[in-house]
Task: inverse folding
């Protein structure tokens, strides 16, 4: 069923599906993403959550969800989703659950699971065309355990395991994996990147995804104040800057066909995004690491040139 | 041996405070342990850190349940049933509290039996560092109370923070802050006796299969019972004269704490608002002001 897109903040569903009082950090960009995702999905969902910061959202005896929620090991959320989907299907087939009462199965993980540890079970679920949603909130490191480097960590980031020093002055020396392309190569019916700073774009993507059976995947780049070394109040500004500088491309792929949903008219210099984040501070002080700054900018430009959106 | 316990909220710097104290005591020639309690703790959540200081080698291991002194870096923790900062404090022990109030007021309010020292660390940090980070003042005040000298304290702040701060200027400001705390507090004689433990029945948890022993929560959306409002240092306050009801703040609150009142103005649930202040930054009309909590109380 196709749903009408929303146009303004006023059209965002007013009811809070995710309750307050969670232990997530003040200013957590992941939580803001999840809040909007759940507004779009409603409360008739089962969340299968791999170990991450968000497994702490529900700590006995308190729970912010109005829907069911299940906690799995880091590598196996998509396998857990398969089990839940199968159980629902069996119940419906046996007439024990009205198909009107069916639930959407939603995997929720950080980048650690999505980019690294859970990639194989995700690939399996995609291969089997499992009917589920996957939301990855990507804070670009293993946040819950103290911000260690993950496959999502960008070039030049300081993490607990890539401290900039004499031998490794730039911090992380490996560029970020392209999870969008990895997922796309499995040809899921719907795939998108989202941002907590663009809730209208986010909600409309869920509305479009809802028409398809099979894997529907979402990656959100989310500011993480303690890991990124930023003030909690700046989380939305930073998520927006990531898009305005071209670092985070907002796009979707419907049956493999890629389209960009937000394209800045004029790209801001990537430095505007990097500067002021504690995890990139060593690129600016005590001396500017020109070569790395240039490389980061060039990688962004290259992406947009490839998509013919930058001349 | 002196045993100290620090209670703060994630992000305030309890761990670094205990490290500053431990390092300073080490530089004075004592045997020392300092360590945080690692848990699934995030910004704002109650955090505990510990320090043992002794003239002899320390054979104890593990968390400190009967401290001689507790450092309470956030006054709201006194009411927090998860943190229970005063539990196990020995008789005649010391309570150092970050508050703008006097020891007498705190003693009267909380009915505590101990030597109470108060210091507005948040204000000192905001004035001197521009940020409510309390590791330096809490570590420095604790060090002064237990009788550490000025030189060791200064060196400890430099050693500990050099590995954390990227700018020399910030380091100098922290050293200055430590020295002004040193002057604001006086050493105390800490001779304590064991407090009798409260009668607590021992609960033996039997081994049960996973479907019984693993926690299942059957309540929907009851997390607002966790009053995360006490994480705030500043609160957002709306100016209705300026607000255009654009809903930007509502759309940007990670915790979903903002709703609309009958007149269509945004209003916030202060019981759970964590004080991230995203709303203050995103309001296009600049109609939201940040106000220090201590001034609201
Ligand atoms: C197999 C395995 N290794 C390590 C851990 C410890 N662990 C728990 S959460 C976490 C970090 C997860 O990082 P990410 O998925 O990026 O989520 P974030 O914490 O950043 O939200 C780790 C390493 C685990 N639970 N399981
Ligand atoms: S560590 Fe980062 S991702 Fe985890 S709860 Fe805090 S802000 Fe969110
Ligand atoms: Mg992560």
Result:
């Amino acid at each position: 069923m196709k749903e009408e897109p929303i146009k303004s903040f006023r059209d965002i569903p007013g009811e809070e599906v995710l309750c307050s009082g969670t232990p997530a950090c003040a200013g957590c960009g992941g939580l803001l993403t999840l809040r909007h995702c759940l507004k779009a999905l409603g409360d008739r969902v089962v969340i299968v959550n791999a170990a991450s910061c968000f497994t702490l959202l529900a700590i006995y005896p308190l729970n912010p969800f109005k829907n069911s929620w299940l906690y799995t090991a880091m590598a196996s959320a998509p396998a857990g989703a398969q089990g839940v989907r199968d159980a629902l299907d069996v119940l419906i087939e046996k007439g024990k659950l009205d198909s009107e009462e069916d639930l959407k199965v939603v995997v929720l993980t950080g980048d650690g699971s999505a980019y690294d540890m859970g990639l194989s079970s995700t690939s399996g679920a995609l291969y089997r065309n499992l009917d589920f949603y996957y939301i990855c909130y990507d804070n670009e490191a293993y946040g819950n355990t103290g911000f260690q480097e993950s496959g999502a960590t960008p070039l030049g980031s300081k993490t607990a395991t890539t401290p900039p020093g004499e031998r490794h002055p730039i911090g992380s020396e490996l560029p970020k994996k392209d999870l969008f392309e990895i997922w796309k190569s499995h040809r899921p019916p719907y795939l998108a990147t989202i941002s907590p700073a663009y809730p209208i774009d986010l909600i409309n993507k869920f509305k479009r995804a809802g028409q398809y059976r099979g894997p529907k995947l979402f990656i959100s780049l989310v500011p993480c104040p303690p890991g990124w070394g930023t003030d909690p109040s700046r989380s939305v500004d930073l998520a927006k800057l990531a898009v305005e500088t071209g670092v985070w491309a907002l796009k979707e792929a419907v049956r493999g066909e890629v389209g960009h949903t937000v394209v800045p008219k004029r790209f801001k210099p990537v430095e505007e995004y990097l500067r002021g984040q504690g995890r990139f501070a060593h690129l600016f002080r005590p001396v500017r690491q020109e070569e790395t700054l240039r490389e980061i900018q060039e990688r962004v430009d290259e992406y947009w040139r490839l998509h013919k959106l930058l001349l | 041996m002196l045993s100290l316990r620090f209670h703060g909220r994630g992000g305030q710097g309890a761990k670094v405070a205990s490290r500053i104290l431990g390092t300073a005591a080490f530089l004075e020639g004592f045997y020392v342990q300092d360590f945080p309690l690692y848990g699934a703790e995030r910004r704002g959540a109650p955090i505990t850190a510990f320090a043992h200081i002794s003239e002899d080698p320390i054979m104890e291991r593990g968390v400190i349940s009967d401290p001689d002194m507790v450092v309470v870096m956030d006054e709201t923790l006194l009411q927090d049933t998860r943190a229970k900062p005063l539990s196990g404090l020995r008789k005649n022990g010391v309570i150092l509290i970050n508050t703008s109030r006097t020891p007498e007021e705190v003693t009267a309010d909380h009915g505590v039996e101990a030597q109470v020292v108060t210091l507005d660390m948040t204000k000192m940090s905001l004035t001197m560092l521009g940020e409510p980070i309390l590791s330096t003042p809490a570590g420095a005040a604790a060090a002064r109370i237990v009788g550490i000298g000025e030189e060791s304290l200064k060196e400890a702040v430099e050693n500990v923070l050099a590995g954390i701060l990227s700018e020399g200027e910030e380091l100098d400001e922290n050293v200055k802050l430590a020295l002004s705390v040193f002057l604001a507090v006086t050493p105390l004689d800490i001779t304590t006796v064991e407090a009798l433990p409260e009668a607590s029945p021992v609960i033996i948890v039997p081994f049960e299969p996973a479907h019984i022993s693993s926690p299942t929560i059957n309540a929907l959306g009851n997390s607002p019972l966790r009053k995360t409002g006490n994480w705030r240092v500043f609160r957002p306050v709306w100016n209705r004269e300026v607000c255009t009801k654009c809903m930007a703040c509502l759309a940007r609150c990670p915790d979903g704490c903002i709703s609309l009142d009958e007149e269509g103005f945004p209003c916030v649930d202060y019981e759970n608002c964590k004080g991230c202040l995203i709303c203050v930054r995103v309001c296009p009309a600049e109609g939201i002001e940040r106000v220090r909590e201590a001034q609201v109380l």
